[in-house]
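Problem 3 from the worked examples.
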Amino acid sequence: MWLIKFVDEILFASGSAEMHAKGRNTVGKAVPTLVSLTGHWIDVQGYTDNEPIGPALRGRYPTNWDLAAARAIDVVRYLQAQGVDARNLVAESFGEFQPVASNATPQGRAKNRRIDIVLRAK
């Protein structure tokens, strides 16, 4: 198994599910490797902290699960557009339910808002 972790601010503006230019550039660095892979699933996993979605975004993303899913899907679509075989791509959302740090502090919440790309054998 191979894992790349991206803290959400590297890829997305706060509350957004569309990668900004810097985020596309960052993920783009992995594209040559991902394009050349055969026999592997490329799981794009979205995670959030446990802070409720604010009122301005709640209509589009009712829960953190929805926001994490939308971010994972955006990364998957970008990878596909860059030539990564769509048959190898998986978008997953874990929402707030698999934290890697405490949600009691701003630093912990920042660590929990992330996108992981996991490679696993088919």
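Problem 4, a separate protein:
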Amino acid sequence: MSETENNSIMSEVQYHAITEFSKTIEMFSLTPSEALLFSTLYIEGEPMTLDEMSEALAKSKTSMSTGIRSLLDLNLVERVWKKGVRKDLYTANSDLFNKFMSSYIHKWLDAANRQKHSLEETKLLLKKERKEIKSGEADHLEEKLNEMIDFHCLISKAFSELDPSNSDS
């Protein structure tokens, strides 16, 4: 097999690996573009510049910059330094399970806590306006609000227990 054929096959296999892995990564609430960018950085295994990412994914440098910022915010990639390279280089964080699970779990915890707080404010509003509402309707609504608040507490508890950053091992 010639080197050209070998490179072609390798490129095709790498493309499929990136595409399939990005489908999994999308399930962690990343956009398809962010998932593809992360997968490319992960499989490449070497730090890349925005220009290199843009060329590899056939997307604009602006699009790559936006995607990298999102991935940096999620602590899924990091900026690295390499002697002699003046442009910013980025690499995927290799601790996949812990980074993705922590990021995903913290999103759920934040959302559950926000919603719980909103429901508690609604419950306070109900108590404030209770004299204006029929007693049976107010009681029913308060009971349902309590159940919804409890539901969010259970979500928070369950996700806290799953958080790999809370483990002692």
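Solution to problem 4. DSSP finds six helices and two strands in the chain. The chain has a mean pLDDT of 87.
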